[in-house]
Amino acid sequence: MKTCFFLSMLTPSLRLSILHTPTRMRVQQTCTLHKRRLLSSAVTPKLKVAVVGSGPAGFYTAYRILERIGESSVTVDMFEKLPVPFGLARFGVAPDHPEVKNCQEKFEEVAQSPSFQFFGNTAVGASTTNTSSLIPAPNQISLSLLRTNYDAIVLSYGADADKHLPSSLPGVHLSGIYSARQFVGWYNGHPEFQHLDPDLLRGDTAVVVGHGNVALDVARILLCDIDVLRKTDITEHAIAALSQSKIKHVKIVGRRGPAQASFTNKEVRELMTLDGVGFIQPAADVMKPFAEGGKSLGRVAKRLLQLLQRGSTVKAGDARKTFEFEFLKSPAGFIGDDNNQVSSAMFDIMELQGDPLQKDTKVKATGETVEIPCAASFLSIGYKINPISGVEEMYDDRANHLTNDTGKVVGSEDNLASLYAAGWTKRGPVGVIAETMYDAFETAELIVKDFESGLIGRGSSVRHGWQGVMSDLGSSSNLRIVSWQDWQKIDRSEREMGTKLGKEREKVTNVAEMLKILE
Ligand code: FAD
Ligand code: NAP
């Protein structure tokens, strides 16, 4: 089974090359046998699963459920608050990483299943924090309505809020300070951020706070050659603003040391090899314990050290733009000019409180501070889960995810549909798409197990799925649902616009415009 599934997740060419081996026949037989076993175990009525959110977690869970239970025994209805699918695979992944978005092809395949339905422009449960006042409200369906009409509900609605710096820090609300989530959403065409209009004209230095991969994405977009970006699916409004940008130096500031940074070597290497971009070496005293780690450094850390020591392909002195990593600096506030625009970021200088080579070593303030002048600042300190109404009590604020036991939401045991969680909603806003996929499979396996053991889908009360929702809503409902066919129409329109501009697609960034395409 594992091999069968694994093969199906690969790109067609890779799949073929792997199948072109003596084991090919065996693998195919295993797949066929597995399918037959599933079909023979089919029972009526069908298990009705609702999936909330159409990002990688939602789609991988749907994929696995359909594959394991079989299309004849289960239906999956996916609800997405935006008219367009794919979550952060569309609105997060950087435009110059098109290969990462290939997962969308798999999701397109899942959506072709006759047992799958997509309900776009349909939010489940009101958001308990208002993050989308700028976009027309989507259709709203309460979680309790879903829970009376489905057997199982998968909450995979991601993490669409910001982790904030303490509001007590001076200057955190000055203009010119953006969260990375806003900035990323803006250049990737998320409807919520189309009006962000970041000011990149006020000076030549930007400070990015945080040492994760999102921080490196933000830095790379600020530094990248605009003609490289032009060919990607970055929005035209971002191209217009970035081509005027005066930002020439990007300082990427983290509160701990190099061994504790959460960015990955691949992304550091990408920055080091950017055309015309030079790297300024970190201060020697900060690097010393890391550089002297010797045999105690693990393989990944050793590689990072080499990358930092070797530096960029283009030397900083010859570069059109530069970047640097600042370590052991924790945000202490911001200073503004007379127009309330940020002009400096303040940091407490920190020291490590233990082994400088351990990933989890903490820091404490030394009592010294440093001021870094800047014309804009981007806070890339992580995302936050938005507990939708109906699951507030199951949300663990400290852990930043729904309380769950390998995917089963804890505290939802009643006569209504069982609640499951997958992806960032389940384990917090960390992990690349591959990790999200494995995590979604874990949840799907749990649903299969609960189905097979009779815990869900075989009780006395038959659930009516979407028909039940519509009948409960009654004739008063006037929902503008975006179906999968509707999305394909928007998709075609974006690709046509893209062709005219010499790129894969030009995203529609406005919900009203998306719906207009469907008129
Ligand atoms: P999401 O992708 O956020 O999907 C959640 C979906 O739920 C969204 O479509 C959202 O609109 C919808 N939703 C929210 N609330 C509701 C509601 N109430 N009702 C209905 N729908 C709702 N990983 C990589 O492997 N490579 C990369 O290059 C990469 N780049 C990244 C760049 C950024 C800026 C970020 C933030 C992450 C990146 N990742 C990358 C990580 C990857 O995006 C995540 O692992 C993955 O998207 C998480 O999937 P998810 O389905 O849990 O959440
Ligand atoms: P992240 O990896 O968790 O990084 C968050 C950063 O913010 C850390 O450096 C953290 O420092 C710092 N931080 C948190 N709170 C802070 C505070 N109060 N003050 C100062 N600094 C603070 O999160 P992310 O960068 O948002 O990325 C999310 C996930 O998406 C990650 O798993 C990432 O790998 C993935 N992603 C992948 C790619 C890619 O593969 N190319 C691209 C983008 C994102 P501490 O460590 O000290 O807490």
Please describe the structure with a list of short key phrases separated by commas or semicolons:
disordered N terminus; 519 residues; globular; binds NADP nicotinamide-adenine-dinucleotide phosphate; 5-stranded parallel β-sheet; alpha/beta; 6-stranded parallel β-sheet; 19% strand; 22 strands; binds flavin-adenine dinucleotide
3D structure, described in words:
- This protein is of the alpha/beta class.
- The protein contains 19 helices and 22 strands.
- α7 crosses α17 and α9 runs parallel beside α12.
- The N terminus is likely disordered.
- The site of NADP nicotinamide-adenine-dinucleotide phosphate has 26 residues, from α9 and β13.
In short:
The chain has 519 residues and is of the alpha/beta class. The chain is globular, with a radius of gyration of 24 Å.
Q: Given the C-alpha coordinates, what overall shape results? A: globular
Radius of gyration: 24 Å
Query: What ranges have pLDDT less than 50 throughout 5 or more consecutive residues?
Result: 1-43
- The number of distinct β-strands equals 22
SS summary, helix count: 19
What class do helices, strands and sheet pairing give? alpha/beta
Characterize the main sheet: 6 strands, parallel
Present as ligands are:
flavin-adenine dinucleotide, NADP nicotinamide-adenine-dinucleotide phosphate
Mean of all residue-level pLDDT scores: 90
Q: How far apart are the first and last residues' alpha carbons, in Å?
A: 44 Å
Portion of residues in beta strands equals 15-25%
| Biggest sheet, spatial arrangement of strands | 8-16-9-10-12-11
How much helix is in the residues?
Answer: 25-40%
